[in-house]
Amino acid sequence: MSYDIKVTGGTIVDGSGKPGFVGDLGIEGGKVVALGKVDGPADTTIDAAGKIVSPGFVDVHTHYDAQILWDRMLTISPWHGVTTTVIGNCGFGVAPTKAIHRKLIMQTLEKVEGMSLEALEAGLGVDWPFETFPQYLDALEKRGSAINVATLFGHTPLRMYVMGEESTERVATADEIAAMKRLVREAMEAGAIGFGTSVAVSHNGYAGKPVPSRQATVGEMDALASVMGELKRGLMQVTIGRDFSTKHMAEVSRKYGIPVTWTALLSYMYGPGGHRKQLALADEQRKSGALVIPQVSCRPLNFEFTFAEPFIFDVMKFMNELAVEEAKAPGTRRRAYADPAWREKLRSEVTPLFRNWWDRVIIAWAPSARELEEQPLTEAARKLDKDPVDLALDLALANDLQARFRMAVMNFDEQEVAELITDPHTIIALSDAGAHASQLCDACYATYLLGHWVRERRTFTIEQAVHNLTQRPAEMFGITDRGLLAEGRPADVVVFDPRTVGPGPLKRVYDLPAGADRLVSEALGIDAVIVNGRVIRRNGKDTVAGNDPLPGRLLRHGRAA
Question: Band of the pLDDT at 354, cuts 50, 70, 90?
């Protein structure tokens, strides 16, 4: 037999968690057709001796909803071995959207997901090729992508579509909920794998207003989730907040027989050791018949922020009020930051909330004081005999509010992170790829897991880590034809070197539309990435171009047609 691609001599780790074995892999017609001993010629042969051959990684928490419309390569996820991605998380997206609401949706993404408004406007253009969610899926399928894409249906554009700007202000009427239910059904029938929403207090959209989903009642959430119960498929993804707790999630899961996954359970989110109560609760919920799955991250949650858009402060009412006033009267932020009384308020309110917040802040970029860059804020303040808050705000004002600061907000305690990522009831996710592009880069989480938690910390075996990156997230999200190497399955494959795999250092590039910036990380140790039987990456370089026909598939209902 002859093959399109033959991968020879590698250790095959099939994604199931079973021990790996040395062998070959044969690919023909986009599928795996042989595992073990593969005889016969091939158009392309990849020597994988000393390497791991695994399924492509499945990233279930991304925000490529807009970016995919101008970047069909979905950079940077494939660099790090991701061959399948889920978009529409946290209830955000760009469909359904009426023409009159396009600017508001983009401004919401700018505020809540840290996306550049200029990049969104330049990348999406004036005439969007869709209005409804089914039209959006059709547009994605027609355009194609380098990797596979599955979609959640987002609550925020849904509410805006039905209720207009009032969606940010009030609860929905019975008629409006009925209209939203019809659209959820339409989206699920068109191919969505589930429904995403957010009640997080930090999620504020345009003009500092709560994102529309935050105004939904528990009854509205229940009604929309009921569609998946009626269809007997799908899942609900929730960014957690007080108004829709894990108790409500468990009720929805039991009532409709669907998984509910929530974002995110992080170290120090509930104070030192507080995550253990949530893990115990997830165990109790599982025993009660509810499938409630916390999403966890294997990386410290490092944010780069400016005081022009200090996203991580938005959980505080007085900071959000400042954002609202800035939208009405530009310059309000500068006046507040210069006011000693306002500075004292920031000092007194932030420190207890974030627990030694200032001790974890690094001065990342400050043109007016380059000698302070990459220094801890508290150390720099001590040398200058200044208070850390005063130094931060002085640097912000001296640099037109564009000085950058970096902070490990959560997930900086490695012992606690180890407990989170090894718990049987959690799922490793939260790359946030496509969002907060200028503030963080966690799209490299898969290579970080393999490098840090497998090779360096030995918290996982290779087989356990690959299972957590492939079959486990695919099954939890109802993606039925990915995440496993087996004969007859689609040939999504990653070949990597276990001795060197990992993320490279973060660097800032200016390659988004309108020249907007983002943080990226090159992948180390990724030898080859194959999607549906086509090599898209070799030795750190793309082997396809964004204007080529691309092999990724739209996974309607969690599978390729």
Answer: low
Q: What is the pLDDT of residue 324?
A: 84
- 322: alpha, beta or left, given left = phi > 0 and alpha = psi -120 to 50? alpha
Amino acid at 178: A
Note whether 302 and 440 are within 8 A (CB). Answer: yes
- State the alpha helices, DSSP H only, in 164-245: 174-190, 218-231
Here the tokens at position 466 are 């690959």
Cα 435-356-208 angle, rounded to 5 deg:
40
pLDDT tens figures, 467-476:
999 999 999 9
Q: Please, which residues have CB within 8 angstroms of residue 289's CB and are 6 or more apart in sequence?
A: 253, 254
Burial of 37 (0-12, 13-18, 19+ CB in 10 A): exposed
CB 552 within 8 A of CB 482: no
DSSP bridge partners of 508: 519
Q: Label residue 350 by pLDDT band (50, 70, 90).
A: low
pLDDT at 145 over 90: yes
* Omega before residue 264 within 30° of 0, cis: yes
Q: CB of 13 within 8 A of CB of 465?
A: no
Phi–psi pair at 441, nearest 5 degrees = -145, 95
Q: Which two tokens stand for residue 344?
A: 């004292």
Contact criterion met (CB below 8 Å) for 240 and 262: yes
Residue owning tokens 């969505």: 192
How do 375-376 and 493-496 pair as beta strands?
Answer: unpaired
Burial group, residue 242, by CB count within 10 angstroms (0-12, 13-18, 19+): exposed
CB–CB of 132/182 below 8 Å?
no
Residue 243, SS3 per DSSP? coil
Strand partners, 257: none
Determine the pLDDT at residue 358.
83
Start-to-end Cα distance in the chain: 27
**DSSP of 145-163:** BSSEEEEEEEHHHHHHHHH
Cis peptide before 503 (omega within 30 of 0): no
pLDDT in tens, 196-238: 999 998 899 998 899 999 999 999 999 999 999 999 999 999 9
Place of tokens 């996203």: 311
Amino acid at 274: G
Predicted confidence (pLDDT) per residue in 524-535, tens digit:
999 999 999 999
Q: Answer whether residue 264 shows pLDDT above 70.
A: yes
| Spacing of C-alpha 398 from chain mean position | 33
pLDDT tens profile 488-519: 999 999 999 999 999 999 999 999 999 999 99
Residue environment code for 243-261, b if the CB has 16+ CB neighbours within 10 A, otherwise e: bbebebbbbbbbebebbbb
Beta strands (DSSP E) in 20-124 are 21-28, 31-36, 42-47, 52-55, 57-59, 82-87
Opening angle at CA 487, ends 482 and 492, nearest 5 = 35
Q: Residues 181, 159: contact at Cβ < 8 Å?
A: no
